[in-house]
Amino acid sequence: MRRLIDDQFPQWAYLSVEPVARSGWDNATFRLGDSMAVRLPSASEYALAVDKEHQWLPVLAPRLPLPVPVPLAKGHPGAGYPFSWSVYSWLDGEPATAERISDPGRFAVDLAEFLASLQSVDATDGPQPGQHNWFRGGTLRTYDAQAQHALAVLDGHIDVDLARQIWTTALDARWDGTDVWFHGDVAPGNLLLDDGGLAGVIDFGTCGVGDPSCDLAIAWTLLTADTRQAFRERLSVDEATWARGRGWALWRTLVAYAQTLGRADDGGDVEADDARRVLAEILAAP
To answer: Which domain holds residue 79?
Structure first.
């Protein structure tokens, strides 16, 4: 990272470079000085998002009610690193967790307001679902084989019949085909808090235009039953879209739970315990 900055952006050579703890799977993230962040895609498929973010984040940012990363410069392969990469403005905040949120109801409404604003941006010529965002915004059927495999692995450990019923309902819930903008990975780690309130949204690598139901998964992965309803009401989500959103949450959680099954049964594993908790939310009520 130091060599890339020094070679390609010598005006920033005097700034410190520090790795960011838990920077994610898709990118290695570094802090550059006090006001910038650098993200290096970890594989070629993740590098597909670089040009997209540089094209569209400057369009989206002024239309959103919360800060999002603004691209400042685009780097190129060099110093033994093979992909394009990005320098962004740094956003202060800490990743959202249920324990850190000071007012869950306010948080749910603020998040819904953000997504409503994102969906209201003109989607003309926006990036359609594809490899660049792992087909977010497209049909859930893309992930049917994964879901079915996870259900087979989890048979005897969860209520597979109920889970399969929820999954089938999600697959059958029709989308009207109207393209809107979506974030694609509305996960706790991408929602920043300041003093317990929602203060920013990061990581638009999976953004695009299409079916926005993928952004509803957060309703089961982070929100509670009460705040989930407030979130849904603010977004005016119809039954079919809500069912698809529940399906997105179910797919990701089934896969995560199946991958951590042995650890989940033993207890004491954070990832496994979280998958079990979220699955209980999904299976309990829509």
So the answer is: 2-89
Q: What is the pLDDT of residues 134-171, one digit of tens each?
A: 999 999 999 999 999 999 999 999 999 999 999 999 99
How far apart, in Å, are the Cα atoms of 117 and each of 63, 65, 107, 137, 192?
7, 7, 15, 17, 17
Residue 265: what pLDDT? 59
Return the amino acid letter for 112. A
As to burial, measured by CB atoms within 10 angstroms (0-12 exposed, 13-18 middle, 19+ buried), residue 95 is middle
How far is it, in rounded angstroms, from Cα 118 to Cα 65? 9
- Closest of 93, 53, 116, 262 to residue 191, by C-alpha: 93
User: Domain holding 49: CATH number?
Assistant: 3.30.200.20
Q: How many domains does the chain have?
A: 2
Task: Indicate if 40 and 101 belong to the same structural domain.
Answer: no
pLDDT for residue 262 = 72
Q: How far apart are the first and last CA of the chain?
A: 45
185 contact partners, CB below 8 Å, separation of at least 6: 136, 203, 205, 206
CATH of the domain at 169: 3.90.1200.10
In eight-state DSSP terms, residue 237 is -
Same domain? 71 vs 142: no
Task: Tabulate helix, strand, coil % of the chain (nearest 5).
Answer: 50, 15, 35
Residues 176 and 126 in one domain: yes
